[in-house]
Design a protein that fits this description.
By secondary structure, the protein is α+β, with helices and mostly antiparallel strands. Helix content is about 50%, strand content about 20%. A 6-stranded antiparallel sheet has the order 8-7-6-11-10-9. Strands 2-1-5-4-3 form a 5-stranded antiparallel sheet, sandwiched between helices. Strand 4 and strand 5 form a beta hairpin. Helix 8 packs antiparallel against helix 9, helix 9 runs antiparallel to helix 12 and helix 19 packs across helix 21. The longest helix has about 55 residues. The radius of gyration is 61 Å and the shape is elongated. It starts with 20 loop residues before the first helix and ends in a 6-residue tail after the last strand.
Length: about 800
């Protein structure tokens, strides 16, 4: 219902026409006429002897004077009374008449004074009334509310300033006219007639609310109150009314209602039992459609990297009305029309007349549900758009309230979706961890430390896996909840100090132990999931321990064999070499003796050939083989000693160590004009003499196998990485063919013994032995004729041999 507003018309309440010239001149005219009449009648009466009949006429001007002119009127009454007495005194010599006129004059003055007092009281009352009227007139004109009144025929009798301004008419143009005469629309006039009729019939207050749109603006809300006006007898003589703009209050009420609806939708969404995220989003879409008063809607996920929309949900109504065969579920952003603008412009898009031409529209396929109005909003996760939501075909126009409500709702929905995704991922991870926990071959047990006066005295088993029951033959149901002393039947909880330290500090701890009752070795890793708790991961290493003991024993045996064999081989070699040298000396003596003897020429030549050629040649072969054999034996002894030596592990200043390594090579480096570049070299832990030998071998190889056609450049650098330090020795020498990269670590292996520089072929074997002895790793990267890079990984923290 729209009562007051549709065009430019509106309404008012009191009669404020004011006094005109006639009303202002009437008291004076009455006074003058009554006075003339009194004088004229008195003169006539005096001339004809009729004084007793008309002498009281002077009451009239006195009364009029006092009524209309108050204080001045009293003075005029005194003058009139005196004038009356003088006239009597001039026209009559009768003392009795003059005495009566005197008495009557006194009565005139007394009556005038009494009338003056009454007039003065009325004057004060009129002033007060005027002040009240002026006060209410000020309030009436200053009020932003529309204040007006009607007679019983629904004609305006008053219109305040606000109503006149709103209608664009003066009060005089409004007074006396009905709504129809003022040009109100017929339906509004009918509504006013109904309200007026209700007031007159019920004789009580009638209120009503109305909403109207002024021009192209927003809806304005008004509250109309109509009250009957009564006379002194209680009869209705009119209707007083006010119209107040309640748009702000109404909008607040609507906002509260919309918030309640949105909160209710959100409550419905949060309380819904969804088997999947998809089902949850379908339900949320239906709630969004209801909240905005739409008919259809959709949700598309959006990938900002691929710039693609992936269909997630269509409302059921869309599926009913849509007849597209094989609709697409994936759209490229660049190929979308106006519904993709929410992503391109990164803001909500409203279209209230979808049928109108729009350059952003690209049409939709045949069979698509018809759209009349449309709104789409982007959903953000931080600065990234992750989805778009659209609703369409609302009966009224979409506005910013719809945008706000839909945005707030779907933002909340997306947060719930994210939470559900995390919950599902958490459940999946928990399921995986539970499967892993139960299927592990290692014993995994979760414990809680028990304290007494802040001292750890025991621990309780919280959980354990199947392997614990299999290995210990203790069932999980029996173990969980038991104290360690009770479960293991010991006076003190095993390893309580170590376990409690991990539970407090959170620093992991690992150790090996032997359990006599089971005759088994275990490796126990201790970690703390939270303060006051610890978990043990126990691995049965009995077999590994036995194998390691066998390996250590065999390695020791092998080392002894190698040492003994190498040592024993040297004795025959020394004997062969010694007796060979003796034969050489005997031959030399024989030659001297033969030179003193005379022999036949033929015999002398043959003997000379044997002595000077064949025997020395054979001896050379013997000496060469002995030297080679001696070199091999020395190499084996050197490898054996390297493996057998006990290391003194300390923190090694690598920069200082490399400087010491380079000293013996200074002459070769300067002679060949080679360049050695030393980079950052972090410290490591190890045996300094062995590391010196290792780097000496690597640097010696780099110098020995330099390329003849270019100057040798060697770069030595290091990098700390986690608990390791990786050193790199890089050169631009002759390089190593790919097929030889795995063999270079073998004992006595040389790439080409004929063309390669002299060497025993054990340098890299010793390098690898030293690295492995330090619990490190070594590898090589090389390309033939380009150079080689050896990467050595050593410990950054202290370790035991």
């Amino acid at each position: 219902m729209s009562l007051f507003f549709n065009s430019k018309k509106n309404l008012t309440l009191f009669d404020n026409t004011g006094n005109n010239k006639l009303s202002r001149s009437l008291p004076l005219l009455s006074l003058v006429l009554s006075l003339l009449l009194s004088v004229l009648v008195t003169i006539i009466s005096l001339n004809h002897g009729l004084l007793s009949i008309f002498q009281n006429l002077f009451y009239l001007p006195i009364i009029f004077a006092c009524m209309f002119y108050q204080k001045r009127g009293f003075l005029i009454s005194l003058f009139i009374s005196l004038f009356y007495f003088l006239m009597i005194a001039l026209y009559s010599n009768d003392q009795i008449i003059i005495t009566g006129a005197s008495v009557r004059t006194i009565f005139f003055v007394a009556i005038a004074y009494i009338l003056f007092l009454f007039s003065l009281q009325r004057l004060r009352a009129e002033k007060n009334q005027k002040k009240i009227e002026e006060k209410y007139r000020y309030i009436d004109d200053a009020s932003l509310d529309l204040i007006y009144s009607y007679d019983t025929q629904s004609r305006f009798t008053h219109a305040n300033k606000s109503l006149c301004v709103l209608l664009g008419l003066s009060e005089e143009q409004i007074i006396g006219k009905t709504h129809r005469e003022l040009g109100f629309p017929p339906e509004q006039c009918d509504e006013w007639d109904k309200l007026h009729k209700k007031v007159l019939e019920t004789n009580s207050l009638v209120t009503s609310e109305t909403a109207t749109q002024i021009g192209d603006g927003e809806l304005e809300y008004y509250e109309v109150s109509l009250n009957p006006i009564h006379n002194d007898k209680g009869n209705i003589i009119g209707i007083a009314g006010t119209t107040r703009n309640i748009s702000e209050r109404k909008k607040s009420e609507i906002a509260v209602l919309e918030n309640e609806q949105r909160l209710q939708s959100l409550v419905n969404i949060l309380q819904t039992e969804s088997e999947s995220i998809q089902q949850f989003l379908d339900f949320s879409l239906n709630e969004a459609i209801k909240l905005t008063g739409s008919k259809i809607g959709y949700i598309y996920f959006y990938d900002e990297i691929k710039r693609q929309f992936i269909l997630n949900s269509w409302s059921k109504e869309v599926m009913k009305e849509c007849s597209i065969v094989n609709p697409e579920t994936c759209y490229e952003l660049d190929k979308t029309g106006i519904w993709g603008e929410a992503v391109r412009q990164r803001k909500p898009i409203i279209v209230n007349d979808f049928r109108a031409n729009n350059p952003l529209k690209k049409g939709y396929p045949e069979g698509h549900v018809a759209l009349t109005s449309f709104i789409t909003i982007p959903i953000f996760d931080g600065d990234k758009i992750v989805a778009v939501v659209g609703v369409a075909n609302k009966e009224k126009d979409y506005d910013q309230t719809d945008v706000l409500q839909l945005t707030l709702l779907m933002d909340s929905v997306w947060r719930v979706v994210q939470r559900k995704k995390y919950e599902e991922a958490l459940k999946e991870n928990e399921k995986k961890l539970a499967t892993l926990f139960d299927s592990m071959t290692e014993m995994v047990v979760l414990h809680e430390v028990v304290y007494d006066n802040d001292s750890a005295v025991n621990y309780r088993i919280i959980d354990c896996n199947n392997s614990f029951s299999i290995i210990t033959a203790i069932q999980k149901e029996y173990a969980v909840g038991k104290l360690a002393t009770e479960l293991y039947n010991t006076e003190t909880a095993p390893y309580i100090e170590q376990y409690a330290a991990v539970a407090v500090t959170g620093i992991p701890f690992e150790f090996d132990t032997y359990y006599p009752a089971m005759d088994k070795y275990f490796k126990i890793s201790v970690v703390s999931p939270k303060i006051g708790q610890f978990a043990t991961i126990t691995t049965d290493i009995t077999s590994m321990k036995q194998i390691n003991e066998i390996i250590v024993s065999k390695n020791k045996e092998l080392g002894n064999y190698l040492y003994i064999a190498s040592h024993d081989l040297r004795s025959p070699l020394v004997n062969i070499q010694g007796f060979g040298q003796r034969i050489q000396r005997d031959i030399d003596s024989l030659i001297d003796i033969l030179k003193q003897c005379d022999l036949p020429l033929t015999g002398e030549e043959r003997l000379a050939k044997i002595i000077n050629e064949k025997i020395p040649k054979s001896l050379n072969y013997i000496f060469s083989s002995v030297n080679k054999m001696d070199s091999l034996v020395n190499g084996l002894l050197q490898i054996s000693r390297t493996g057998r030596v006990r290391m003194n592990i300390t923190r090694v200043n690598m920069k200082k160590l490399i400087e010491d390594v380079l000293l013996p090579f200074n002459y070769q480096i300067e002679t060949a004009k080679s360049e050695i570049i030393i980079g950052d070299l972090p410290d490591c832990y190890g045996d300094a003499p062995l590391l010196n030998q290792m780097f000496s071998n690597l640097l010696g190889n780099a110098i020995r196998y330099k390329h003849e056609e270019r100057r040798l450049v060697v770069k030595i650098s290091g990098e700390a990485k986690y608990k390791k330090v990786i050193y790199k020795i890089e050169d631009n020498g002759i390089g190593i063919a790919e097929r030889h990269l795995e063999k270079i670590w073998d004992v006595f292996f040389r790439v080409n013994s004929k063309t390669s520089p002299e060497g025993e072929g054990i340098g890299l074997t010793i390098v690898k032995t030293i690295v492995e002895k330090h619990r490190g790793k070594i590898r090589v990267e090389s390309a033939l004729n380009e150079g080689s890079s050896f990467l050595v990984e050593l410990n950054r923290e202290e370790f035991t041999e």
